[in-house]
UniProtKB/TrEMBL annotation:
Record bears the keyword ATP-binding: no
UniProt KW Transcription keyword: no
Enzyme class: hydrolase
Protein name from the UniProt record: Beta-amylase
Family: Belongs to the glycosyl hydrolase 14 family.
EC numbers on record: 3.2.1.2
Gene it is expressed from: BAM2_2
GO function term, MF aspect, one: beta-amylase activity
Alphabetical keyword list: Carbohydrate metabolism, Glycosidase, Hydrolase, Polysaccharide degradation
Classification via InterPro entries: GH, Glyco_hydro_14, Glyco_hydro_14B_pln
Catalysis: reaction(s): Hydrolysis of (1->4)-alpha-D-glucosidic linkages in polysaccharides so as to remove successive maltose units from the non-reducing ends of the chains
UniProt-listed Pfam families: Glyco_hydro_14 (PF01373)
Length: 324
């Protein structure tokens, strides 16, 4: 909206526009994926590369870059809509005219700034414009552009990496999850207010492309978030469960990863609870788990013992409790 450029990803608006030296963004993406597959052919054929996670946006996640720290965003700001380059505005104008309301060819003018809170805005507050006629039109368009972008890129990935397991990562935008509008999710492209399942169309798109769903933040505890930022109405566990349930109900393979450095049993147990929910009658579980944030601290004896215990439990082995 301020005219600044974000280097984290290309605008979805140029997926089919020949503005990259005569090529579209989709053609560039496909050329890169195909080149990667050829360059590392031996590792694919020998099974060393067992899964490819295809980047679909900032941090590799299927979302808009709605909360960039370099532009001043700080947690738990609602973020800003990212629809102001000429190509996105052209798409919005076309959608508004097709709907018969050309005046709707604009972004919301009362959605605050990167660090606003929902109740401070006319768009995201309880009973706000997000749930009005224009708001529903805009959010439907905004989220559809994101899902269509994911679908196009993953369709090409299936061709480039034929025979390989492909994963797509969703962000866990869990702050303001306990408010009516779910403001931070809306600016990220997840049209998931309290009266709508905003992840259903995403799951269907992933299912249609036969990819694995990857969800971050399997280790976050809602109570901890409320202790640190009680005003953010955060619920990482609630959001993870909504996404996991939506994926599993469609039969999607689901992978996970931790968001924070994890060295103790509390964090490991939280990840295990997400990976293999207790008392699930269908015995659903993650197909894989990526352990992130490795550090030299992991090599300390007690930390390494806890990590060993975590890995064994993740693989279903019975282990004796270690002395904490």
């Amino acid at each position: 909206r301020e005219g600044r450029h974000n280097p984290e990803c290309l605008s979805w608006g140029i997926d089919k526009e020949r503005v990259l030296r005569g090529r579209t963004a989709l053609e560039v993406y496909f050329d890169f994926m195909r080149s990667f597959r050829v360059e590392f052919d031996k590792y694919f054929e020998d099974g060393f590369i067992s899964m490819i996670e295809v980047g679909l946006g900032p941090c590799g996640e299927l979302r808009y870059p709605s909360c960039p720290v370099k532009h001043g965003w700080r947690y738990p700001g609602v973020g800003e809509f990212q629809c102001y380059d000429q190509y996105m505005l052209k798409s919005l104008k076309k959608a508004a005219e097709a709907r018969g309301h050309s005046i709707w060819a604009r972004g919301p003018d009362n959605a605050g700034t990167y660090n606003s809170q929902p109740h401070e805005t006319g768009f995201f507050c309880d009973g706000g414009d997000y749930d009005g006629f224009y708001g529903r039109f805009f959010l439907s368009w905004y989220s559809k552009v994101l899902v269509d972008h994911g679908n196009r890129v993953l369709s090409l990935a299936k061709l480039a990496f034929e025979g390989s397991c492909i994963a797509a990562k969703l962000a866990n935008i869990y702050w303001w999850y306990k408010t009516a509008s779910h403001a931070a999710e809306l600016t990220a492209g997840y049209y998931n207010p309290c009266n709508r399942d905003g992840y259903a169309t995403i799951m269907e798109m992933l299912k249609g492309n036969g990819v694995t769903l990857n969800i971050a933040c399997a280790d976050l505890n809602t109570l901890n978030q409320l202790d640190v930022f009680p005003e953010a109405f955060a619920d990482p566990e609630g959001l993870v469960w909504q996404v996991l349930s939506g994926g599993w109900d469609l039969g999607l393979p689901v992978a996970g990863e931790n968001a924070l450095p994890c060295l103790n049993r509390v964090g490991y147990n939280k990840a295990l609870d997400s990976a293999k929910p207790m008392n699930d009658p269908d015995r659903r579980h993650f197909s894989s788990f990526t352990f992130l944030r490795l550090s030299p601290l992991l090599m300390e004896k007690q930390n390494l013992l806890e990590f060993e215990r975590f890995v064994k439990r993740m693989h279903g082995e019975a282990v004796l409790d270690l002395q904490v």
